[in-house]
Amino acid sequence: MKRLFLTTLFLIASYFCKAQENALSRIAFGSCSKDEEQQLWQEIINQKPHLWIWLGDNIYGDTQDTAVLRKKYKRQKENVDYQRMLKAMPVIGTWDDHDYGVNDGGKYNSKKKECKEVLLEFLDVPASADVRKHEGVYSSYTYGSLGKKIKIILLDTRYFRDTLEASTIQGTRYSINNKGDVLGEPQWAWLEKELTDSDADVHIVGSSIQFIPEEQGFEKWANFPKARQRFLDLLQKTKPNNIFIISGDRHIAEISKMDVTGLLYPLYEFTSSGLTHTWDRDFDEANHYRVGSNVIQKNFGMILIDWTKQTPSITFEVWGKDGRAYLRYTAF
After folding, report:
1. pTM, 2 dp
2. Nearest one of 14, 26, 11 to 315, comparing CA atoms
3. Which end of the chain is more exposed for a tag (fewer CB within 10 A), N or C?
4. Distance of CA 220 to the CA centre of its chain
5. Which distant-in-sequence residues (6+ apart) come within 8 Å of 21 by Cβ?
């Protein structure tokens, strides 16, 4: 058993080292996965991604009992197809509310430190990793060399987030918290450092909740307009190369696009959710930033980067069960 454990750690380290050295051109991501339901792991493997990114609700724990969380993570991790995926590519990620331990939860989760440890165990995060040295699960990863370098910044939208305010409007769960924050000062300082003078050619920011959409009445950055504007101001200040956002949570897939003063290109957000369950009906939810259509079927996202051009070309794809393609959009 000990030998098998050491072998597994060696393989994981080897994959990470290889990914760090080589340029990534195919990145898969997704969210909202009930460990007891039919998964899309084989469909993901078939797309031959170089990396998988978890964007939260990696399990549906809905508990602060770490024993229950570990049991659910164990069942997820021991899925035969998930094991195949682990052997085919490195896996990184962050969390959302259902694996954070509290539905729609924020900074007042009394067990958030314990829940963090369970998540990092599931992701096989090394004991020496920076994410283990600070509060919250925010982290960054850099892959490839100059000219083909990608920086992936995974935010923690739970650990420090202020309280959501209930809405009295029918069909809208939450209203605006004009003073509230999402990231917390330590994470803001870290994020600014990650973006300032970054030499990466592509920047991917992972947010478990949606950033750009405003109309939907559920969790989103737009519920905290001060924090949302602070993020946009930071982009204006640091002007990172080719930055876009990926998100989950919503049980739909869609692409949003907004113009940001000071950026030389539009800001895109690619949402993919959920892996095992979505809405039980089709609907055309309002989002005036959306480009193309929204996808209700179970799905995962693919980010394709073409490094052969003078500036990288980036395409978003939405895939589902039995290799079905739902959406394709070239953003850059």
Report:
1. 0.93
2. 26
3. N
4. 14
5. 144, 145
